[in-house]
Write a structure and sequence with these properties.
alpha/beta, 12% strand, globular
Length: 173
């Protein structure tokens, strides 16, 4: 396992776990660039996640998700990467995460916390019809996949962004 001083730190976890927020805090603390999957996709396409999902469908979005993950971990300069929540669904992406020499940290959050955070999220098309049921199902389906790729697990429950960022640094150290 590499340390955070010589490799990327990749944050994985469910939507609403705080990957982007914690990623920004980590990037500031380490003086690194934050590579956020959703922002990279939107910059590349000129469209929001919701627009891509609606116009092109989930398979096209997942392909973009995989492309930006490979691009981010291939960067020669260590960065903080906030990976999209569904990135672990692809066996190829899991192999990329495990083989990249990056330090992968699963930001683990209780489903109730996630529900509170994602309720107002207009950019989360998967939650349109049944937010609670969908989120609980996704949580059950993805837990083992996050575990598979994670070098460390950090709980975000009842913690500030800076506290979580500090915990990530300690376990990535």
């Amino acid at each position: 396992m590499s340390t955070c001083t010589d490799s990327h730190i990749v944050l994985v976890g469910m939507m609403g776990a705080g990957k982007s927020s914690v990623g920004r805090a980590l990037a500031r603390k380490l003086g690194r660039e934050l590579l956020d999957s959703d922002e990279m996709i939107e910059a590349r396409t000129g469209r929001t996640v919701r627009e891509i999902w609606a116009a092109d469908g989930e398979p096209a979005f997942r392909e973009l998700e995989s492309d930006v993950l490979r691009e981010a971990v291939a960067s020669p300069t260590p960065s903080v990467i906030a990976a999209a929540g569904g990135v672990v669904l692809s066996p190829d992406n899991r192999a990329v995460l495990k083989g990249a020499g990056a330090h992968v940290v699963w930001l683990l959050a209780d489903v109730e916390l996630l529900l509170g955070r994602v309720k107002a999220g207009m950019h989360r098309p998967l939650l349109d019809d049944d937010p609670e049921g969908t989120l609980r199902r996704m949580y059950d389906e993805r837990g083992d996949l996050y575990q598979e790729v994670a070098d460390a697990i950090v709980s975000v429950d009842n913690r500030s962004i800076n506290d979580v960022a500090g915990a990530v640094l300690r376990c990535a150290g």
